[in-house]
Every structure is written in structure tokens, then in C-alpha cells.
Design a protein that fits this description.
The radius of gyration is 21 Å and the shape is globular. It is α/β, with parallel strands linked by helices. Strand 16 (about 285-290) and strand 17 form a beta hairpin. The chain contains 11 helices and 20 strands.
Length: about 425
């Protein structure tokens, strides 16, 4: 079994990029070579703004190249819940942003000819309990009445038309979500940045950000530094201690994923009939999808504190896959990997600019494959002074999460609590 991700194993050609040496100057320096940072650079380069991207590893080495490749509408919480928290108008804007995010990705893929197996066949959200299906029906009704958004409910007796599984009690289906090869999209976006004149340095970890004046910032690495007018920090859950305010506003949560060997095409087609993204309503959820080479990718919650814990978690994840899809009981698992998901206190993404001038976007809570490209574009507009300061996701006055230093212990406790809630719900 391979510990690399299936995406890395099946990636398009990856060019070798330089390490930053000495001093470079540009208009905007971007820390983080994932979806968000690359989108910022891409949209700025379209406006002839010179950018430098500093990536501590390789492009797509973090969550952008290690997620499940599910490009989903909405947020981790239901739109009904968000409307109660923030009001219908703000929730409407947030929902439209989630729809726009997928359209933006689709346009970039088409315009830049990025080969990343993008398929817009929708998403299936499977009900873990009968009561969960009732909640999904209420959400479907709300989405139509509030936003005229059409979706469908699949009853348990009809679920065989979507999944080869009797584990769930029905499902909610939207036709607007998508799947893709996340690393190949990231690599394609990086090449698009470079075609437009942007520079990407790999193995060039930013070690210090110093604001010298309102229009001059210096970002240092181990072997050099970049002098720019503006700076953006886009590392999401992979915080590095560069900015204490941002670090203390995000909690990293681990997700683990496995991928099977290539399956017979007929079996793969049978498992997820319409090649949709899929997940379930458990608090410690499963998410799963087919790949272009007929594998099953299956993910869930993880907390690998040791190699022994990791083996146990992956064994349980495989058991979960077989519970959902008994037809996979003899399927070999070829790849297993993990990644970090970033959560904010409100469990929605944050975007903004701090008083010291640092721009940011983070905290996608499992929806970064969709939302990060759009938020990167919005950050670029903010840097050009063309952004919408009434964005409902703007949190320029970031506040630290209470007891942030204890987040690892708290996450562990919350997972046991969520497991209990899944049991009694």
C-alpha cells in the first residue's frame, strides 16, 4: 500500500521550480502555493500586477492536492442554519458565492485547458438516519422557497438508482456540484500563473513578514527575501507561525482518505450510478467518489497521533467503506493519505485584510475545493481596491478562537462527542 495520495500518483507533469535565492522585488508577494494563493496570483497577473508565490514545499503539497476532489455548493452548515445566524440576505449572498465558485473553476479549466477530469454531475448527500432525511427535505424546501434553487430528494426505496448501498435512508441531490482531480487543477492553475508572468518558488518557506511602511513589506525565507507593496497569507490549516492573529483564528482538523485499486468499469458504474460527488450526514462524515481511472476514493475523520493510531484509523475507514459498499469487500486499497482541513470559529470561510495590511482567506471547512478559487479572486480585487467590503465572509477584525492553544485536545474530545451524537440522532 502506498502512503502517497492517488492524486500525486496520477498527476500530470510537474515542472521543477526554483528555490528563492537572494532578493526579489514585485508588486504582491503571496505565501502559499495552493488553490487560494494561486488564484490570487492568477487574477492579479491578469491585471498585469507582478506577483511572487512562496511555497514551503511544492505546489499543491497541502490540502489543495490532498483533498477528495469534491467541488460542492454550499457550506458545512445548512443554508437554513446560516440564514438564521446571519439573515436571509447575507445567506443568499453566501449561497450565490458558492454557486459562482464552481462556475469560476469551470471557466478557468476551459480557458486554460487544464486537464483535471472535471465532471459536473452534482452531489449526493446521503441521510445517515431517517431523521436526517427529514432535515434534508426541509433544506430542499428552504432552498427552493428562498433562492429558487432546485434539487431533489431520493427516498430510501429509490436510493438504488443512485448508490449500490442499503446503508443510508435516502438522499439530497443537487445537480450543480462537481468532481475533479484536485492536484492536476492546482498544477494547471500554477502553470497559468507562470504563463501570465508570475513567479513561483518552491521549497521556499516564508520565515518572517516585516511591514516596513504602508507600501513596503519584506517576506524573508531561509535563502532570500521578497520586497513587495502588498502581502497575502494563504496557508489555511497549514499554519507556520508567520502571523499569530491568523494562526489563532483557525483550527486544523485531520481528514484521512484511501483509494482502491482500479475497479472493473461496470462495478465502478454500479457503485455511484451518476458519477456524483457524495458524502453523508454524520457529524464524523464519510465522503466518497469515483475517479477517472475507476477507483473508489473514500474519506473520513482522522487523528493520527502515531503510526499505530494511523493504521487503526485507516483500518476502520476501510471497514466503513465496505459497510457502505459491500461490493468492495475484496477490493485492494492501493493508496492512503491524510490532510488538514481548516475550521474557523463560525465554521464559514473568512476573507479580509488586517490592520497591518496582510490579506488572508482561510477556513473552508471541507469546501475549499470550491470556495478557495473564488476567494482568491476576491482577495485580488481587494488588493486592487475593487472589492466588496460588504462581503458577508469579510472578517478583517479577526478574533482568536478561545483556548486556541488547546485545540488539538479539544478536537479529540469533540470527535468523541460527535460520535455519540451520530449514535443517538
Amino acid at each position: 500500500m502506498n502512503s502517497m495520495s492517488v492524486w500525486e500518483a496520477t498527476a500530470n507533469e510537474r515542472p521543477k521550480r526554483p528555490v528563492l535565492q537572494g532578493e526579489k522585488t514585485c508588486d504582491v508577494v503571496i505565501v502559499g502555493g495552493g488553490f487560494t494563493g494561486l488564484s490570487v496570483a492568477y487574477h492579479l497577473q491578469q491585471r498585469n500586477v507582478e506577483t511572487v508565490v512562496l511555497e514551503k514545499g511544492v505546489v499543491g503539497g497541502g490540502a489543495s492536492g490532498r483533498n477528495g476532489g469534491e467541488v460542492l455548493i454550499g457550506y458545512v452548515e445548512s443554508m437554513r442554519s446560516l440564514a438564521k445566524k446571519y439573515g436571509r440576505d447575507a445567506a443568499r449572498q453566501m449561497f450565490q458565492m458558492s454557486l459562482d465558485s464552481i462556475g469560476l473553476i469551470e471557466r478557468i479549466i476551459q480557458e486554460e485547458d487544464i486537464a483535471c477530469d472535471f465532471q459536473r454531475n452534482g452531489n449526493l448527500l446521503a441521510a445517515y438516519k431517517p431523521s436526517h432525511l427529514d432535515d434534508l427535505k426541509r433544506e430542499q424546501q428552504f432552498l427552493y422557497e428562498a433562492y429558487q434553487f432546485e434539487s431533489k430528494i431520493v427516498e430510501k426505496e429509490d436510493l438504488h438508482t443512485e448508490l449500490d448501498s442499503s446503508f443510508y435512508h435516502g438522499a439530497f441531490v443537487d445537480e450543480r456540484s462537481a468532481i475533479f482531480h484536485p492536484l492536476n487543477y492546482c498544477l494547471g492553475l500554477a502553470k497559468a500563473v507562470e504563463r501570465r508572468g508570475g513567479t513561483i518558488y518552491e521549497h521556499s518557506q516564508a520565515t518572517k513578514i516585516e511591514r516596513v511602511s504602508p507600501d513596503k513589506v519584506i517576506v524573508e525565507t531561509h535563502n532570500g527575501r521578497v520586497v513587495a507593496k502588498q502581502v497575502g497569507l494563504f496557508v489555511n490549516a497549514y499554519t507556520t507561525g508567520l502571523h499569530d492573529v491568523i494562526d489563532r483564528a483557525i483550527v486544523p482538523v485531520e481528514s484521512i482518505v484511501l483509494a482502491t485499486e482500479p475497479l472493473p468499469p461496470a462495478l465502478c458504474q454500479q457503485l455511484i450510478k451518476h458519477n456524483r460527488a457524495a458524502s453523508d450526514t454524520k457529524r464524523l462524515l464519510y465522503y466518497f467518489r469515483r475517479t477517472a481511472d475507476n477507483r473508489m476514493v473514500f474519506g473520513g475523520s482522522g487523528r493520527t497521533a502515531s503510526k499505530r493510531d494511523a493504521r487503526s484509523l485507516f483500518d476502520k475507514l476501510r471497514e466503513g467503506m465496505v459497510t457502505v459498499f459491500p461490493a468492495l469487500k475484496d477490493a485492494k486499497v492501493e493508496y492512503k493519505w491524510s490532510g488538514k482541513v481548516g475550521f474557523t470559529f463560525e465554521r464559514i470561510p473568512y476573507i479580509g485584510q488586517l490592520e497591518d495590511g496582510t490579506h488572508f482567506a482561510f477556513g473552508y471547512a471541507g469546501h475549499g475545493a470550491a470556495m478557495s478559487t473564488l476567494l482568491g479572486k476576491l482577495v485580488a480585487l481587494n488588493m486592487l481596491n475593487e472589492g466588496d467590503r460588504h462581503n458577508p465572509l469579510d472578517r478583517s477584525r479577526l478574533k482568536p478562537i478561545p483556548f486556541h492553544s488547546q485545540h488539538a485536545r479539544a478536537v479529540g474530545i469533540m470527535k468523541y462527542y460527535f460520535k455519540f451524537l451520530d449514535y443517538i440522532s
